[in-house]
Amino acid sequence: EKGGFDHFMMKEIYEQPRSIRDCMRGRIYPQQGRVQLGGLKEYAEKLKNIDRIIIVACGTSWHAGLVGEYLIEEYGRVPVEVEYASEFRYRNPIISEKDLVIAISQSGETADTMAALELAKDKGATIFGICNVVGASIPRITDAGVYTHAGPEIGVASTKAFTAQVTVLTLIALYIAQIKGTVSQSKLITLLTELNEIPDLIEQALKHNEEIKTIAAKFKDARNFLFLGRGSAFPVALEGALKLKEISYIHAEGYPAAEMKHGPIALIDEEMPVVFIATKHSSYEKVISNIQEVKARRGQVIAIVTEGDTEVKKMADYVIEIPQTDEAFLPLLATIPLQLLAYHIALMRGCNVDQPRNLAKSVTVE
Ligand code: F6R
Predict the structure, then answer these.
(1) Residue 189, exposed/middle/buried by CB under 10 A (0-12, 13-18, 19+)?
(2) Ligand 1: does its nearest atom lie under 6 Å from the Cβ of 59?
(3) Which residues does the entry assign to the active site, renumbered to this chain (predicted)?
(4) What span, in angstroms and rounded, lies between the C-alpha atoms of 283 and 270?
(5) What is the 3-state secondary structure (H, E, C) of 95-138?
(6) Which residue among 156, 158, 363 has the greatest number of ligand 1 atoms within 8 angstroms of its CB, and so is best to mutate?
(7) pTM of the entire structure?
(8) Which residue, of 199, 267, 314, 340, is most buried by count of CB atoms within 10 Å of its CB?
(9) Rounded to an integer, what distance in angstroms lies between the CA atom of residue 278 and that of residue 177?
């Protein structure tokens, strides 16, 4: 049942090339530069004229929502707000018929997310769902939606469901761009051609597993961890920290790299491992100066870098390479080594990676 792996989590991490392919199947036509989302077809006109999108979710799904915010704003040019479902529902939010509220939920059963959607529906908003479990409560009450098709996720820590959620949000961002014409046809062709290759690139990223295991051995006894990234790598940092804390019980925090100097820098000493997402994208140089700030205080730097990088390698204590990709798809690749790092550290600490203490796969209490 674990397909030759010791744990469901590892099986599910390794399934990602396949689950992402399944998620994109029949939805992208790279040569034509076209995205087709059957579930949203009737809402094309609505999406063309929408003024604002509100995403509601909890936990890992909320992190996917944050990645979605970057992508939808960048490509679809629609303002997006991402809310914790539990906060949104209790504060008399301002929503109307003009709004589109999208719930993201692997299980489709999370009580707070469900309640946030019901509230939005009562206020007349259009409601969409991005869910993994077919026929769950959330997809049953939404006006429309897109399934992630990641297949059953057994490990309590979400892995393949997260990358499938990010894939769906990428498709939605490009679909809105296509409908509104905010991205040229030729650019859509380039982007979709590259997106189509992401499963193969994830395959390559997974090949660094042994190195990641070696790094995990060095840091398994750490008391704290910081994860830093900028742009769409910031939610990836949050997700890396959440994975580590939930399965290894090491205290970890994710931050936008630039926020480090506004507080967390005080924590840095030789005992503090800091994981940077330092790939060759728009904020590369800025991230490099953040790495220097950590090194100047003797922090231990583990950097996720673009294959062939030499500059970060000179500064970081450890580097993990991921293949070069367009910045739009960086979250899909950069997440992989962080999942593996959390897995190996948890295992080395003797933790139950598939069923961490105090956690349930689906949170149906408020
Ligand atoms: C973390 C994790 C949780 C869930 C959260 C929402 O690995 O799995 O944070 O993401 O409980 O669950 P869903 O997506 O089912 O609504």
Answers:
(1) middle
(2) yes
(3) 361
(4) 26
(5) CCCCCEEEEEECCCCCHHHHHHHHHHHHCCCEEEEEECCCCCHH
(6) 158
(7) 0.98
(8) 340
(9) 28
How far out from the chain centre does Cα 191 lie? Answer: 18
> What value, to the nearest 5°, has the Cα angle with vertex 238 and ends 205 and 164?
55
**Tokens read off for 335:** 């997440």
Q: Identify the burial level of 285 via C-beta atoms within 10 angstroms of its C-beta, where 0-12 means exposed, 13-18 middle and 19 or more buried.
A: exposed
Q: What is the pLDDT of residues 164-176, one digit of tens each?
A: 999 999 999 999 9
Question: Does ligand 1 have an atom closer than 6 angstroms to the CB of 362?
Answer: yes
CA-to-CA dists, residue 176 to 40, 72, 102, 293, angstroms: 10, 8, 14, 39
- For this structure, is 313 an active site residue? no
